[in-house]
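Forwarding these from the shared drive since the link keeps breaking.
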Amino acid sequence: MELIIYLLIGAIAGFAAGLFGVGGGLIIVPILYIVFSQMNYDPAVLMHMAVGTSLATIIVTSMSSVSAHHKKGAVLWKVFANLAPGLVLGSFLGAGIAHYLSGQGLQLFIGGFALWVAFKMFRGAHAKIDPAQHLPSTPMQMLAGGGIGIASAIFGIGGGSLTVPYLNRCGVVMQKAVATSAACGLPIAIAGALGFMWFGQQAQVDLPHTIGYVHIYAFIGISVMSFMTAKLGAKVAHRLSPAMLKKCFASLLSTVGIYFICQGILHF
């Protein structure tokens, strides 16, 4: 029964990821939080488990996405190489920061982040790229990668919500920004998941079917189904306007953000 629940979560997250063009982390984290709550997991580590497991699942979906984008020649591998060192170091550091945050603090952080992304999506639903902008120097790209990595690990996402806007602002067209962001999601997810496993082991998390802050059954079930349903979501996305998609996703994120902020405040 438990595995069936994780398969359903994966189906929803994969469809949403394909539909909205971003990783499923901001979908997976709140659903896992609710499921783990119903399973009476320790509230002190509940949120950390949701975030760590979410990052682990992004490893699989990111590999699939990168392969598809690479075949179309859309990935800017030089930009990826510049961002990657910062992404890896930042993601591991982000996992450490999340480890030292209380469950309530993590809820407030993620809730606030979801609302911020929702606001940016609402405001930028009809935004156009400025072709006059250019990518900064290599050291600045590495620094940006570090910031994206830290935030992505704390929030349990593949970084698309941050990498795509960053590349857009630097004059990269949307298709190549999304493709490069997908590639960036892989080092974020690997380093972040390993960080949550390691810090979780240090905290001696005593829950069944887990390695540190990563739930193995949830990882397998969500990864398998999200890999399959992401393609269906992408097909549906082509029938809707990009502006409408952004507004729908922003509405969903607003709901998630308000939910986590309320939960965090109630448990303080």
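-- next protein --
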Amino acid sequence: MSASTARVTGGGRFGWLKPPKGGPGGTMTLIDHIRELRYRLTIAVLGIVVFSALSAFFYEDLMRFITAPYEQAKADVMAATGGAATIELTNVGVVSPFTLAVIGCLLAGLVLSTPIWLYQIWAFVAPALLKNEKKYVLVFVGAASPLFVIGCVLGYIVWPRGVALMLSFTPQGLDIINLLDMVDFLQKEVMIMLVFGVSFVLPVLLVMLNLAGVVHGFQLAKARKFVVLGSFVLAAVVTPTVDPFSMLALVLPMTLLFLVAEVVCRIIDKKRGITEESYAEFNPELDVGK
């Protein structure tokens, strides 16, 4: 293979193992952007897989941690019903234990590898930033990583309360046994943890997009009421238990973090000298006043 051909195809057989260098000033062709995305996704997935494999060595402790919300929810329901409720957590089917192990380890791998895949997100967007703005990578990863973990922890805390609320609708005085499928229980637990985690990271992504010149503070201000309304709609759709407690636990932090992101974006715009009027002047085709 010639040098020119190797350059076009990505450096030969193992070209996918490294990102494209790009042209002067960090410019890239469409093919280079696709190669860059492939590389970043590969590194992110490898990080998740490696940490998932490592978490398998602590499988028993991991399962105790995962089932703790069930124990908490069961204790709350038993206390509310005077011990009259019957609740059992079960594995249904031959492959359920294996599915349970895979989901649990992948969740642990995703959380533990947070700095890795967050850095890959930043690295994919970084070529669009100015040279002096690329230094914010540590700030982005340093802020987004704990926010994602905090969001997951909050979802973990909220989950048993939602489960207890849903189970409290079981009619009393009837011989009804609540059999909870362990795999289904874990899938919903993972979903609510990830929803909370990603929601906590979104404001940091907004600031990153502001640095890249995609969004501006005044635009976020105009979208504020729609974001609040959208937060309620999103919480109603994605929270597995659709109980008011879980919804508010998601909406309130999302709204607060969005307001913080708006303030930060306004500060960045002010330092750059970007205002709504100046933006409209340089973008006459956009009616930003609406």
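The first strand starts at residue 87 and ends at 90. Confidence is low (pLDDT under 50) at residues 1-9, 285-290.

- D.
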